[in-house]
Amino acid sequence: MPQDNLPKFPKVHNAMWPGLVGKGDGAEPFIDLDTMLDLTAAASVGGERFDGVDLFLSDPHISIDATSEDLARLTDKIRDRGFVVGSLVAPVWQPTGGGSAMGSEEDRKRFLKQVEKACVIGEQLRRTGFRTYGVIRIDSATGLHEWLQSPHESTRAIAETFREACNIAEAHGERLAAEGEICWGGMHSWRQMLQLLETVDRPQTLGFQADMAHTLLYTLGYNAPEDRILPAIFNWNDDVALQSALRQLASALRPWTIDFHVAQNDGTVKGSGSHDKTGHHCLPHDENGRLNIVRDAGYWLRDDNGALTKSVRHICWDGCMFPNEVMRRPETWDSILATMLAVRNAHSWQEAVHV
């Protein structure tokens, strides 16, 4: 097949969980999965569309206890819109049926059971040929305050639980990605995240999920001043210093990165509903956005010498906690898709796909 006709990677996905995260619980109402899929399917830029979606395995979108029949219906509704499925978020938190990865024996059993259920669903979707790439996303499901009570023992306990989760994932042919986010204990700074990954020491099964909004907060040391890379008083006009910080951060965590979220951030945090404060996601062209998205994505998608790593086969837009009114505008998704295509085109490769 001529090179020009080969499929282009990474594929471009949209996350469905912004319809759930930070919604309900006194905040704005949830946006149902069908609506999220329709908004994604309607987006188009120069005739190009999103390739697929990433899913949160939790009600009211998708039950973690979904039956084979439920998954068949899910597959039909996603396929009918021309999409495939990539990564899946395991609902490991206490409110969604899980428990802290460093908690009691019962907490950790619930955490692992949710991982197992997510891996079973992932395996079922993969066997149909409907899901050929992607990971199962996890985090420590514990807050920073709890972790700080005994940092060393807390990380040791999380690592032990993550190792057991790796055993489960391997039994189902899955890989796990731990999303670095300042609100999760033991994963709240880039150094602690790296230490946790190295302590687990299962690089073939457990990797890192880099979200551009969250990792920018890593450089600021928001919940770990001792690990900040940028100075406490930083002039955002100093683009040289910002790029240097992003390079240092990505150089440390890129070798572990197996899942990637494209996002914008204004250097602040936001919480909504039951979700703790974390990196504030912004629209791609927000006037206060601190990231040059296309350029800065390259720090994660290319190695220190500028060569493509090809370690992720799809990239996903994550825009959690946007107001519902913004999310329901068609132009929101056209703008996001245009940004995603620009990232892909700047950091893409082509290869034959063997079915």
Could you explain how this protein is built, in words?
This protein has about 350 residues and is of the alpha/beta class. The protein has a single domain (about 5-350), classed as Divalent-metal-dependent TIM barrel enzymes (TIM Barrel, Alpha-Beta Barrel). It is about 40% helix and about 15% strand. The protein has eleven helices and twelve strands. The strands form three sheets. It has an eight-stranded parallel beta barrel, surrounded by six helices. The chain starts with 7 loop residues before the first strand and ends in a 5-residue tail after the last strand.
CATH level 4 superfamily: Divalent-metal-dependent TIM barrel enzymes
What count of domains describes the coordinates?
Answer: 1
- Report the span from N to C terminus: 15 Å
Strand tally is 12
Order of helices and strands: EEHEHEHEHHEHEHHEEEHEHHE
**Low-confidence runs:** 271-275
**Helix content class:** 25-40%
The dominant shape is globular
Per DSSP, what share of the residues sits in E-state strands of 2 or more residues? Answer: 15-25%
Rounded to an integer in angstroms, the radius of gyration calculated over CA atoms is 19 Å
Q: The CATH topology is what?
A: TIM Barrel
Q: Do you know the CATH architecture?
A: Alpha-Beta Barrel
* Secondary structure tally, helices: 11
Largest sheet: 8 strands, parallel, barrel
Protein topology:
Layout: E1 8-9, E2 11-15, H1 33-42, E3 52-56, H2 68-79, E4 84-89, H3 105-127, E5 136-138, H4 144-148, H5 151-171, E6 176-179, H6 190-200, E7 206-211, H7 212-220, H8 239-253, E8 257-262, E9 264-272, E10 275-282, H9 293-301, E11 314-317, H10 324-327, H11 330-346, E12 349-350
Parallel strand pairs: 2-3, 2-11, 3-4, 4-5, 5-6, 6-7, 7-8, 8-11
Antiparallel strand pairs: 1-12, 9-10
Helix pairs in contact: 3-5, 5-6, 9-11
